[in-house]
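F.,

This is the one I mentioned.
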């Protein structure tokens, strides 16, 4: 989430993209069980975020995580 939502003034966009792509490559190697657990955790985090700070960009990232990082799962 950090690499997706970080402000360009905090981290160079090219560096953020490079790190996000590296993370995506690692996630692709996860087992189906690991992917399921990660998606379950993202859903739980989205629910907690909605009940707390309710940052729209964070909620949106968490709710769309599966589409963005596991499009074929």
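My design for it:
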């Amino acid at each position: 989430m950090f690499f997706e939502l970080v402000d360009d003034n905090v981290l160079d966009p090219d560096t953020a993209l490079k790190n996000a792509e590296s993370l995506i490559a690692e996630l692709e190697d996860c087992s189906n069980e690991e992917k399921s657990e990660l998606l379950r955790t993202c859903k739980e985090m989205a629910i907690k975020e909605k009940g707390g700070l309710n940052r729209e960009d964070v909620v949106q990232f968490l709710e769309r995580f599966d589409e963005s990082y596991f499009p074929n799962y």
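Residues 8 and 62 are 20 Å apart (CA to CA).

Talk soon.
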